[in-house]
C-alpha cells in the first residue's frame, strides 16, 4: 500500500482524541480477589488499572464521544469518508460507523465502512485514508477505532482487559504527524487469538501470541528498513500495539537488539515510556491501543518532537503486522488534548470487585424484544437498549 508523498503534499494525522468510560477497577482489587501478588500485574504486565464498560455504553457510544470534540462545522463539511475499525462489532451487516455518523450529524455525502482484522484494522484504515486523500486532497477522513477487550473473569487474560476508542482526523497538511510512504507488512495464518461469533470472550494462547507478535515485528521492520533506508537510530521515538505495556517494552528491547547496537536500558526506556502512560491506566483497547499510545507520546513527552521521526508497529493476531513511520509537525503541541485526556483518566469512578463483576456479566438480551439498559453513565451518548432487533441510542 505504498504511496509517494511529495514534499509539498504531506498527509497524516491532523487531530487525535481518545475516550474511555468513566468506570475503572484497580488491578490491586482483582489481585486481592484472586489471592495473587499485585506485582504480577504491576510489574509482570506493566498494568495498574483498567477501564470497565458499563451496560449503557458500547463501541458506538465510545467512538462518538471520542470524535465529538473534533467535529466542528468545517469538519462536518470536509469529512466524506468514515472508517470504523473494531473487533467488537455490534452488527453482522451494518457498519458501527453509521450509528456514529448519525449521532455526530455528519454529511449524507459520505462513505462509511467497518474494517476488521483483530487489533490491526485501524492501521489498514489509516493507510486507506492516506490513499483516498491523495485523490481527494480537499477532503478529510474520520478514522474511528473502538473496542471492548474481554477475556473472561478469572482467566489469565483478565488483567489485560480494558476498553476505549480513538478518533483521528486525517488530512493534507496535518498538524500532528505526517505519515511517510514506506511500510513493512506481514500476513500469516496463525491461531494465536480469535473470537468465534458464538463467544463473547476471546480465545487466546498467550505465550504463542507473544512469540508471533515479536517474530512479526522483526519481519515487518526488515521490510520497512529495506524500503525506506531508515535505520533504528533515525527514529526518535517508537509506538507499539499495546495488549499490555510490558509487551511493548519487550518488543522494543527485541527490536533494538536485532536492528541496532543500542543496549542502554535507560535510553531504550525513554524512547517508548511516554507512549505507554495512558494504556497503563485504561488497559487494552485492541484497535485503538496503538493510537492511544501515539496520543500519549505526543502529550507526555517533555522534549519537543518537532521534525522528529516516530516508528509505529501495528499488530493484529491471526495475523497481520505493519511497521511504518511518521514525522511530527512543528506546532503540534497546539492541537493536543492533554488536559482533557488526563482528566478523563483521573476522574473515573473506581469499582469494587462486585460492581466490576456485575458490569462484566451484563449482556443485552438477544431475543429481539424490547429491553432497556440500566442507567449508569452521565454522558452525551448512551446505549438505551433495543427494540425489534434494533439497537437504540440516545
Task: Describe this structure as you would to a colleague.
- This protein has 394 residues and is an alpha+beta fold.
- The protein has one domain: Peroxisomal Thiolase, Chain A, domain 1.
- The protein is built from 13 helices and 17 strands.
- The chain has helices spanning 27-34, 39-42, 59-67, 73-78, 96-104, 121-135, 206-228, 245-259, 265-272, 277-282, 289-300, 338-346, 353-361, and strands at 11-19, 23-26, 49-51, 79-85, 111-115, 140-149, 162-172, 177-187, 193-194, 203-204, 237-240, 309-316, 320-328, 349-350, 371-372, 383-387, 390-393.
- The strands form four sheets. The protein has a nine-stranded mixed beta sheet, with helices on both faces. Strands 3-2-14 form a three-stranded mixed beta sheet.
- Helix 3 (59-67) packs across helix 5 (96-104).
- The longest helix is centred in the middle third of the chain and has 23 residues, at 206-228.
- It is globular, with a radius of gyration of 20 Å.
- The two termini are 38 Å apart.
- Mean pLDDT is 96; it is low at 1-7.
Amino acid at each position: 500500500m505504498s504511496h509517494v508523498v511529495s514534499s509539498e503534499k504531506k498527509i497524516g494525522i491532523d487531530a487525535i482524541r481518545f475516550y474511555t468510560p468513566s468506570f475503572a477497577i484497580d488491578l490491586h482489587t482483582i489481585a486481592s480477589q484472586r489471592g495473587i501478588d499485585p506485582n504480577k500485574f504491576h510489574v509482570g504486565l506493566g498494568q495498574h488499572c483498567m477501564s470497565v464498560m458499563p451496560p449503557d455504553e458500547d463501541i458506538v457510544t465510545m467512538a462518538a464521544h471520542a470524535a465529538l470534540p473534533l467535529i466542528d462545522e468545517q469538519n462536518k463539511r470536509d469529512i466524506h469518508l468514515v472508517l470504523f475499525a473494531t473487533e467488537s462489532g455490534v452488527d453482522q451487516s451494518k457498519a458501527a460507523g453509521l450509528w456514529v455518523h448519525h449521532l455526530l450529524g455528519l454529511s449524507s455525502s459520505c462513505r462509511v465502512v467497518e474494517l476488521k482484522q483483530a487489533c490491526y484494522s485501524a492501521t489498514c484504515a489509516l493507510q486507506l485514508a492516506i490513499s483516498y486523500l491523495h485523490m481527494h486532497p480537499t477532503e478529510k477522513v474520520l478514522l474511528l477505532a473502538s473496542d471492548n477487550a474481554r477475556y473472561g473473569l478469572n482467566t489469565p487474560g483478565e488483567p489485560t482487559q480494558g476498553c476505549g476508542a480513538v478518533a483521528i482526523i486525517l488530512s493534507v497538511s496535518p498538524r500532528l504527524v505526517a505519515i511517510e510512504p514506506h511500510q513493512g507488512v506481514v500476513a500469516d495464518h496463525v491461531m494465536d487469538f480469535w473470537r468465534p461469533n458464538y463467544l463473547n470472550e476471546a480465545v487466546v494462547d498467550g505465550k504463542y501470541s507473544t512469540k508471533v507478535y515479536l517474530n512479526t515485528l522483526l519481519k515487518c521492520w526488515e521490510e520497512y528498513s529495506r524500503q525506506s533506508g531508515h535505520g533504528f537510530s533515525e527514529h526518535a521515538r517508537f509506538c507499539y500495539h499495546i495488549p499490555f505495556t510490558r509487551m511493548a517494552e519487550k518488543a522494543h528491547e527485541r527490536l533494538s537488539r536485532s536492528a541496532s547496537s543500542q543496549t542502554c536500558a535507560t535510553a531504550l526506556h525513554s524512547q517508548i515510556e511516554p507512549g505507554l502512560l495512558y494504556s497503563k491506566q485504561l488497559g487494552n483497547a485492541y484497535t485503538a491501543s496503538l493510537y492511544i499510545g501515539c496520543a500519549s507520546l505526543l502529550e507526555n513527552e517533555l522534549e519537543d518532537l518537532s521534525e522528529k521521526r516516530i516508528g509505529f508497529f501495528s499488530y493484529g493476531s491471526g495475523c497481520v503486522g505493519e511497521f511504518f513511520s511518521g514525522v511530527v509537525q512543528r506546532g503540534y503541541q497546539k492541537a493536543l488534548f492533554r488536559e482533557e485526556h488526563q482528566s478523563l483518566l483521573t476522574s473515573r469512578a473506581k469499582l469494587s470487585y462486585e460492581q466490576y463483576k456485575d458490569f462484566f456479566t451484563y449482556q443485552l438480551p438477544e431475543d429481539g424484544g424490547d429491553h432497556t439498559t440500566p442507567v449508569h453513565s452521565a454522558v452525551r451518548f448512551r446505549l438505551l437498549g433495543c427494540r425489534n432487533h434494533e439497537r437504540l441510542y440516545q
